[in-house]
Amino acid sequence: MATYDELQIGDSASFTKTLSETDIYLFAGITGDLNPAHVDAVSAAGGMFKQRIAHGMLTASFISTVLAMKLPGPGTIYLSQNSQFRAPVFIGDTVTATVECVEKLDKRQWAKFKTTVVNQDGKLVVDGEAMVIPPSAAKA
């Protein structure tokens, strides 16, 4: 964990996960997003990717994992996220979400992070930026 004062520009952390069919179905059930592109193999086979794909928001959610659990870590308040989905993620793909501190806003004690998710081949699948309130020394 890093408090606002401990956080340095360039600090980074990552989280890696291999997506399973169960992950896709659980996410679909929790969110109600039952788009056939995610849950219906027959329908997805006729689509643009020729197979089922993971939900973009499931893939992007691993950014939250890094911010909340690694950097800045527990106590972090997630303020905003913009994400561009650059490539599909398939069942069985291993994705790595990485955050890198790119700016500290001293007046509010907020921090801006570059956020990326890449697949096992190093291909960028999600690109974006997050704003957070890191834990303060008093909260840590």
Structure characteristics:
140 residues; Thiol Ester Dehydrase, Chain A; elongated; single chain; alpha+beta; five-stranded antiparallel sheet
Write the CATH homologous superfamily of the domain at 12-19 and 54-133.
Hotdog Thioesterase
The largest beta-sheet arranges its strands as 1-3-4-5-2
Principal-axes shape call: elongated
Tell me how many strands there are. 5
- Unreliable segments of 5+ consecutive residues: none
| Class inferred from helices and paired strands | alpha+beta
Distance between the termini: 9 Å
Tell me what the CATH architecture of the domain at 12-19 and 54-133 is.
Answer: Roll
Q: Beta-strand percentage?
A: 25-35%
CATH fold group of the domain at 12-19 and 54-133: Thiol Ester Dehydrase, Chain A
* CATH class label of the domain at 12-19 and 54-133: Alpha Beta
Report on the biggest sheet. Answer: 5 strands, antiparallel
| Number of helical stretches of at least 4 residues | 4
Q: Helix coverage percent of residues?
A: 10-25%
The radius of gyration is 17 Å
